[in-house]
Amino acid sequence: MAILYPPTSFSFIVNGISTLEGIDSRFQSVSGLSTEIETEEYVEGGENRFVHQLPKRAKYPSLILNRGLIVNSGLIKWCRDGMENFEFETRDLTISLYGGATSTAPLMVWNIVGAYPVKWSVSDFNAEESKLAIETMELKYKYFTIPTNNLNSLL
């Protein structure tokens, strides 16, 4: 299989959110797949030229999922259980990036650990525009991993 480089970002699936995988795995966009290392400053006595920057821990932003509004889905029930009933159930998610519309095997996979909903919103309604109603879900999570076999396939 020839791998196109760089890969396109339009063909992806999010799995693990609900038992109704089909429609609940399709999204318009996903953002928040990044990580950053926090640092701690350490001032060394007698050394005035610089301050040491020591690594502490990784930080992960919220995962933002956008899609057309779906009235009745397992994903919405999961979000509503958290928002309305304060019953949070963490889920492990998998985001798979494919090489294109006809690709059958993912190029890369991100394993999201311990996700739970913290925000749900729907786009503005406007009678003067003919646009889709878009719902946005914001999820917090512990961390993500990228299996090493994914990285080897791109080399």
Question: Could you walk me through the main structural features you see in this protein, from its secondary elements to its overall organization?
Answer:
- This protein is mainly beta and 155 residues long.
- It has a single domain, classed as Pnp Oxidase, Chain A, CATH 2.30.110.
- It has 3 helices and 9 strands.
- The chain has helices at residues 21-24, 74-85, 148-154; strands at residues 12-15, 29-31, 36-42, 52-59, 63-68, 91-98, 106-122, 134-140, 143-145.
- The strands form 2 sheets. Strands 1, 2, 5, 6, 7, 8 and 9 form a 7-stranded antiparallel sheet that branches.
- The longest helix is centred in the middle third of the chain and has 12 residues, at 74-85.
- The relative contact order is 0.23.
- The mean pLDDT is 85.
